[in-house]
Write a structure and sequence with these properties.
The structure is a homodimer. In chain A, the strands form four sheets. A seven-stranded mixed beta sheet of chain A has the order 1-11-10-7-6-2-3, with helices on both faces. Chain A has a four-stranded antiparallel beta sheet with strand order 12-14-16-15. A three-stranded antiparallel beta sheet of chain A has the order 9-8-13, with no helix packed on it. The first copy, chain A, folds into two domains: about 5-30 and about 285-390, Aspartate Aminotransferase, domain 1 (Alpha-Beta Complex), CATH 3.90.1150.10; about 40-280, Type I PLP-dependent aspartate aminotransferase-like (Major domain) (Aspartate Aminotransferase, domain 2). Chain A contains 13 helices and 16 strands. The termini of chain A are far apart. By secondary structure, chain A is α/β, with parallel strands linked by helices. The interface between A and B is large, with 65 and 66 residues.
């Protein structure tokens, strides 16, 4: 089998297909848009002087997030990394534990594990969801772990595998039923990294609400933004209370005394960032609609292009289509960098997926299963411009 | 010697003196005020869509902070705690090290040390500056440490004492010459916690610029605010570059590749918070002037009140007077809680200093020198309303 086209023709064709949808550059990968009450809410912060760590927008944003996702509780924090860190703490992840996560994720997932003194343990990814390959992981855990006092022990390292953090890649839900079943069978706590998947549903239920805890991100490149921000989702009232406590320096309530009963963190989301979030959340439905419309336009543009496939939401899922994703045929993956060059040189921003975590220097020695498909996917994936404004502004 | 007055008369007199300056309640301890370009700069963020981790206000805020403080470099971060954490990392503080700090500080100083896996080691405070008692610390270190390969070893625990973090309490500079001399003589790295002292100078030089690194906070209760925020100050270009790298997930520069060369953090200050900071920094001189004027008014109000003294800036210092501070005579300290009750019940917000760190559960087992004066000061200090707006709005 040989490639049916040259590097330059594939790159040119991909660029032409993107441009048929987004027009000519410069077009960013994902830019925020502010078409609602943002400025009004910011003005309310300024006028009331409540810009910092308490304020009505913090309360409202948390309530609105809980309502939208269906989680009983949402606790806003300073960013997605902080939400992962605290969720791991709340799940009882301790120094010397191992935590399973996909090798194919943003570095924050792995970093947060190390903040707890724990060790990332990498899992392979599947083509169907771009998330953890559940069948392969189950087989691996069957072979390499044992159960001792209801704990999952890595037989090779002797360490406890305490938690499992799937990440819903580019907003596409992972195989959540399969992951829940692994968590249950192997006594591992499930925490969902839903940083990319606000607005994504699995079997009609919002991502981030299946595990003991779920985490969101509102970084500038996400579907909605608070400048910087994140949130912890949970249905457990005790965990929600502890999440708020740990993220607000573990200060005990008192009229004036400063007493803290454990090592805490300054991870509160400021009111001014929450104000932005409240306005953005109001526009989430229209943004999601625009992102789905963008997918359909790309689908049309790429339908006859050989060697590349536009990734579409997994079965039984409704994805937010955060980042639109091209999947190069395996044989065409050698042209990935050429496609990236040609498009970026034309000011159409595209990017590859992250370097798999196991290939990063700080995680070279971390335990992992066979990661052949994560490696392959990392060479095949290209994200293309995904802003809802591409659709909304054209109206 | 017995107290010359009853609890109720002292509390009533203190309340009357405060009210003679601030009027009748409700008056908060320290509230932000936004009298400049805040809304305009926020609007520029919204209009440009640059609200997140890059943007012109981040660059401008860092440049303006460097100019104002005289530090060669300022790196903005998500809050003061983050600036302490990264500064400790940059100073080479490692797991198992000890770090000296005053017992009388906000919990963030101690927490940040633990984030590095290091152990807080508490020092006593002096009346003259409310900061570390330098003479007492030197005597203690002479007795309890030894030098091994240019490292300061705690002879009792066997651990390296790697760093010393004085905190400039309520904006009043500590005895910086004395601290620098200890750092030099004992081979300990000096990091200044200047969270409270933006606008405070020691011998004409801005606090936070004497140590290898200095840290600032722009929390809502500080002299100027970014909602939540902080900054790292340093004159060392290599450290400045590493600070930016570590606070931006340690990502290596590349047109599209996501490669990170060490465990990093998501500690960037969002552009929208920096926008607020730029506008606030423009008003710093007028705020400082108002705070000094407030001090003078309080000085007048309290000059004839027995049993209590208004704290004034140490010799050779120009303080920002962040929080105005009453120091009860030792014999009157038993009335502290009564004074706090009476004033807070009248909606004049007052508060005591922090519970000394060694008395908090997470630090019960931490090493410390004798902390008799920190304990005493913790019973004698009362902070009273300190907002610049008290003066500015009365105009």
């Amino acid at each position: 089998m040989i490639s049916s086209q040259t590097s330059s023709s594939l790159a040119d064709n991909v660029l032409a297909a993107i441009q048929s949808v987004v027009g000519f550059g410069p077009v960013s990968l994902h830019e925020p848009s502010f078409d609602g009450n943002e400025l009004q809410y910011l003005k309310e912060c300024i006028d009331s002087t409540y810009v910092s760590s308490v304020g009505k927008f913090v309360d409202k944003f948390e309530k609105d997030l809980a309502t939208y996702t269906g989680a009983k509780f949402a606790i806003s924090v300073v960013n997605g990394t902080a939400s992962l860190h605290i969720s791991l703490k709340l799940a009882g992840v301790q120094s010397g534990d191992e935590v399973l996560l996909p090798a194919l994720t943003f570095v924050a997932t792995a970093n947060a594990i190390t903040y707890c003194g724990a060790i990332p343990h990498f899992a392979d990814s599947e083509d169907a969801t771009l998330g953890i390959d559940v069948l392969k992981l189950r087989e691996y855990l069957n072979k390499t772990t044992s159960q001792e006092s209801d704990k999952c022990i890595n037989k090779i390292t002797g360490r406890v595998i305490r938690a499992l953090i799937p990440m819903h890649t580019f907003g596409h839900p992972s195989d959540i039923d399969g992951l829940l079943s692994i968590a249950n069978d192997f006594n591992i706590i499930l925490i969902e990294d839903a940083a990319e998947s606000l607005g994504s549903f699995y079997s009609g239920q919002h991502t981030g609400t299946f595990g003991l805890l779920g985490t969101l991100s509102f970084n500038g490149n996400k579907t909605i933004t608070t400048g910087g921000g994140g949130a912890i989702l949970t249905n457990d009232e005790g965990l929600a209370r502890r999440a708020k406590h740990l993220t607000t320096t573990a200060k005990l309530p008192h009229a004036w005394e400063f007493r803290h009963d454990e090592i805490g963190y300054n991870y509160r989301m400021p009111n001014i960032n929450a104000a932005l979030g409240c306005a953005q959340l109001e526009q989430l439905p229209s943004k999601l609609k625009a992102k789905r419309e963008l997918f359909l336009r790309y689908q049309n543009a790429f339908k006859n292009l050989k060697g590349v496939k536009l990734f579409s939401e997994p079965m039984n899922c409704q994805s937010n289509y955060w980042l639109q994703t091209l999947l190069l045929d395996e044989i065409e993956s050698k042209f990935r960098d050429n496609i990236l060059s040609v498009s970026n040189n034309s000011e159409i921003m595209t990017r590859p997926v992250w370097v798999p975590m196991n290939e990063l220097e700080p995680f070279n020695d971390s335990p992992s299963m066979d990661l052949a498909n994560a490696k392959l996917l990392s060479q095949r994936i290209i994200n293309i411009p995904s802003s809802p404004s591409i659709v909304l502004r054209a109206k």
